[in-house]
Amino acid sequence: MNRPETFDARMIDSGTMHIDIFERLSAMEIGQSVVIIHDQNLRPLYFRLQAECRQAFGWETLDDGPEAWRVQLTRKTPGANSETIGDMVSRDYRNAAVFKKLDVDFSCDGKRTLEQVCTDYYLNIDDLRTQLDICLTQPAVQTINLLSWAPAFLCRYLINLNHQYIKINTPFIAELAQKVAVGYKDSHPQIGRVSNLFFNAGEIMMRDILMEEASLFPDIVKLSECYNKDCLPAKDTTVDILTTFYDMMATHEKIAADFRLIRQLTNNYQVPRYVSSSYNILYKLLQEYEDDLLFNFHLENNLLLPKVITIRNKMRSMQIPH
């Protein structure tokens, strides 16, 4: 077997890195592989490939930092445009309960098919399908057809509901977690780690939602409005919008993983015996916060991002400069 070629992304301009890599990948034949090396996290590239190329490339992490990141990409035979787990959750949010129970990331890494998930997590696909069928017999989580929402409306929904929830609850939960961690540092030392995980995740979320409200969402609204009116945006923002999305997805993937760890440390938020009411309240708030966070990530990554990509692609096909 021939060894794959090496593409050293450290040697090219960071502003054109994804373009250069896409050109290299598009020239590859089926079955051909390339090893990409960079001095920055390559997960944003992973999410770009997942969002824009579906299952056209296999991804294998060889080195995961902190000094160098190496991944091997293999060109695959294009398959059928199969439904992804993100599509399934978008169609009916009750499916999210099954993936969450199995610790499957549907909110950030939702571009995988059921078959890929079963391979990644060593699951039996028939058992998984049975669990998904059973979950759909439960009362509906929501009756709103989120798939029909326009990008501008999705942005406003995220700001007015999810962002407000994060702004209000993040500092309160962080303070409560710190107090509980101090009070139970001897009898329940794991709460100290829970407190640190939440504090770090909360700081990132507060930073990101402010950035979304200041620039990302306004740019998406303007792009969507221009497309609906068949007019040209004053400035090409699609590259910046998508680059920001993929960078955030890499960050939010880590936050989702941290909350899976919080669930493990708290035994799925099962409150120990003989603890204070503050302990009970903390677990309840952590569980609600995680649920809201995953829904927020899902709306952004599995609904809003594909709509932005669709607008960009339609503008290109209509030969509208943008």
Word description of this protein:
Pfam families: DUF2249, ScdA_N. One of its GO terms (cellular component) is cytoplasm. Residues 6-75 form the DUF2249 domain. This protein starts with a strand and ends in a 5-residue tail after the last helix. The model has no long low-confidence stretch (mean pLDDT 90). It is globular, with a radius of gyration of 21 Å. A four-stranded mixed β-sheet has the order 1-2-4-3, covered by helices on one side. Helix 7 packs antiparallel against helix 8, helix 8 runs antiparallel to helix 9 and helix 9 (238-265) runs antiparallel to helix 10 (277-317). The chain has three domains: 5-75, TusA-like domain (Translation Initiation Factor IF3); 85-135, no CATH class; 146-317, no CATH class. The protein is an alpha+beta fold and 322 residues long. The protein is built from ten helices and four strands, in the order βαβαββαααααααα. 61% of the residues lie in helices and 8% in strands. Helix 1 (17-26) links the parallel strand 1 (5-8) and strand 2.
Summarize the structure.
One of its GO terms (cellular component) is cytoplasm. This protein has 322 residues and is of the alpha+beta class. It is 61% helix and 8% strand.
Can you give keywords for this protein?
single chain, 322 residues, four-stranded mixed beta sheet, globular, DUF2249, DUF2249 domain-containing protein
What is the fold's blueprint, element by element?
Layout: E1 5-8, H1 17-26, E2 33-38, H2 43-53, E3 57-64, E4 69-75, H3 85-91, H4 95-101, H5 114-121, H6 125-135, H7 151-183, H8 190-228, H9 238-265, H10 277-317
Parallel strand pairs: 1-2
Antiparallel strand pairs: 2-4, 3-4
Helix pairs in contact: 2-9, 3-10, 7-8, 7-10, 8-9, 9-10
